[in-house]
């Protein structure tokens, strides 16, 4: 038997909210599909939620996760469909769209802080109503916060396009800033690298979901800062 693998539609079309898919593996509440619009938790972006519909039955997705290279959808109950059945997928779009806006916002934030203050990112987490990013920064003064907010909102308001590119290693290495994105350190077997380009501003390797233009992000506000010790400073943001 060949290994079941799933077409990851969310990587090429982050705006697809519904589609049909075929069940290729089933074990209790765990489902693997031939294709999916649901993002599995990873890279600081939380799991998508949503529903799987079969006949008149509706199943809520509690979690989507990657396990041994497969994408598992965990349902709220054992479904009545079987392998090879066709099911309908409905994404919890407000939640996902929020993740997209915050993910794009974090890319802008990280580039602004790097450009202006030379700081690297040491961690990040997205939520549906906020996001945070940790930087290797000794000091986080009110001036730095103000400047960061100003610059980020300037980029956002320029309504720049956000493009998703699939590049081979050599092309990707030429395009990204290797000081910030160590794609030269990615395992050799990864031949194609997904890159998120904010036109004329930033290029970064990323497997998350993004909005199509910066203006979709909305106004960015740094709502909280925290000293995480060891030269790490955290910024929490909201977009509205
Ligand atoms: Zn990203």
Account of the 3D structure:
This protein is an alpha+beta fold. The chain folds into two domains: 85 residues, Beta Barrel (Elongation Factor Tu (Ef-tu), domain 3); 144 residues, 2-Layer Sandwich (Threonyl-tRNA Synthetase, Chain A, domain 2). 22% of the residues lie in helices and 39% in strands. It is built from four helices and 15 strands. It has a six-stranded antiparallel β-barrel. Strands 9-10-15-14 form a four-stranded antiparallel β-sheet, with helices on one face. Helix 2 packs across helix 3. The mean pLDDT is 95. Bound molecules: zinc ion. Zinc ion binds next to helix 2.
Give the secondary structure arrangement, pairings included.
Elements: E1 7-8, H1 9-12, E2 18-27, E3 30-33, E4 35-36, E5 50-54, E6 57-67, E7 70-75, E8 86-91, H2 93-117, E9 121-126, E10 131-136, H3 142-157, E11 162-168, H4 169-175, E12 192-198, E13 202-205, E14 220-229, E15 232-239
Parallel strand pairs: 1-4
Antiparallel strand pairs: 2-3, 2-8, 3-7, 5-6, 5-8, 6-7, 9-10, 10-15, 11-12, 12-13, 14-15
Helix pairs in contact: 2-3
Bound molecules: zinc ion (ZN).
Comma- or semicolon-separated keywords:
240 residues, alpha+beta, Elongation Factor Tu (Ef-tu), domain 3, Threonyl-tRNA Synthetase, Chain A, domain 2, 2 domains, six-stranded antiparallel beta barrel, four-stranded antiparallel β-sheet, binds zinc ion
């Amino acid at each position: 038997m060949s290994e079941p693998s799933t077409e990851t539609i969310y990587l090429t079309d982050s705006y697809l909210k519904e589609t049909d898919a075929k069940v290729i593996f089933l074990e209790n509440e765990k489902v693997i599909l031939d294709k999916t619009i649901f993002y599995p938790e990873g890279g600081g972006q939380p799991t998508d939620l949503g529903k799987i519909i079969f006949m008149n039955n509706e199943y809520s997705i509690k979690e989507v996760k990657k396990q041994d290279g497969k994408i598992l959808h965990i349902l709220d109950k054992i479904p009545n469909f079987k392998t090879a059945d066709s099911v309908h997928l409905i994404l919890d779009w407000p939640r996902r769209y929020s993740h997209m806006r915050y993910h794009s916002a974090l890319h802008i934030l990280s580039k602004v802080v790097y450009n202006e203050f030379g700081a690297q990112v040491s961690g990040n987490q997205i939520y549906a109503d906020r996001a945070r990013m940790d930087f290797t920064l000794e000091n986080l003064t009110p001036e730095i916060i103000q400047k960061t907010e100003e610059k980020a909102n300037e980029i956002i308001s320029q309504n720049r396009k956000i493009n998703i590119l699939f590049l081979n290693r050599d092309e990707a290495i030429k395009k990204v800033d290797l000081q910030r994105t160590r794609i030269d350190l990615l395992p050799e077997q990864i031949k194609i690298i997904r890159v998120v380009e904010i036109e004329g501003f930033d290029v970064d390797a990323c497997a998350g979901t993004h909005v199509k233009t910066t203006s979709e992000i909305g106004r960015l506000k740094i709502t909280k800062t925290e000293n995480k010790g060891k030269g790490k400073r955290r910024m929490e943001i909201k977009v509205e």
